[in-house]
Amino acid sequence: MSRLVTQLTVAAAAAGALAAAAALPASATSGVAFGTIQYDSPGKDTRSNASLNAEWVTVVNRAGKPLDLNGWTLSDSSRHTYRFHLKLGAGKSVRVHTGTGRDTASDVYWGSRAYVWNNDRDTATLKDARGRVVATKSWR
């Protein structure tokens, strides 16, 4: 009978561990997080492409393996949405600029002709390709 109790205890512990892992936010399992966010473009807000591109969000892959971000989204409180089309290397980061430009491995461009991030308050939300929230970062 003690063997049965031990097996049941092990099974219950395994089920509890699985439930706890399922309850973790996706960022805890994916290793993706926000780095620095420059939501207030320095200087006067001229709406020039240079000024728009001085507003950006950094996404960091803290995992030990590359991650496919294809279909992931970055959005603000007003639901302006950028869709990723890239793979992010292990330990690498990518900066998402608001304006237009030529995408590289470390910098991508939203293509917006207007500022996305509110200077006084906003929330950046990163979702995976299934629409699950991976990370959020707010400011006031």
Strand order of the largest sheet: 1-2-7-8
Q: CATH superfamily assignment?
A: Lamin Tail domain
In the CATH scheme, the class would be Mainly Beta
Order of helices and strands: HHEHEEEEEEEEE
User: Structural class of the helix and strand makeup?
Assistant: alpha+beta
Quaternary assembly: single chain
Using the CA coordinates, give the radius of gyration: 20 Å
CATH architectural label: Sandwich
**Major sheet summary line:** 4 strands, mixed
What is the total number of structural domains?
A: 1
What's the total count of β strands? 10
- Uncertain stretches of 5 or more adjacent residues: 1-28
The CATH topology is Immunoglobulin-like
How widely separated are the two ends? 59 Å
- Report the β-strand fraction as a percent range: 25-35%
Rounded average pLDDT: 85
How would you describe the shape? globular
Helix content: 10-25%
By DSSP (H or I, 4+ residues per run), the number of helices equals: 3
Explain what the structure shows.
By secondary structure, this protein is α+β, with helices and mostly antiparallel strands. It contains three helices and ten strands; from the N terminus they run ααβαβββββββββ. It has helices spanning 2-23, 26-30, 49-53, and strands spanning 32-38, 56-61, 67-68, 73-75, 81-83, 87-88, 93-97, 107-109, 122-127, 133-139. A four-stranded mixed β-sheet has the order 1-2-7-8. A four-stranded antiparallel β-sheet has the order 5-4-9-10. A two-stranded antiparallel sheet has the order 3-6. The N and C termini lie far apart (59 Å). The radius of gyration is 20 Å and the shape is globular. The chain has one domain (26-139): Lamin Tail domain (Immunoglobulin-like, Sandwich), CATH 2.60.40.1260. Mean pLDDT is 85; it is low at 1-28. The longest helix has 22 residues, at 2-23.
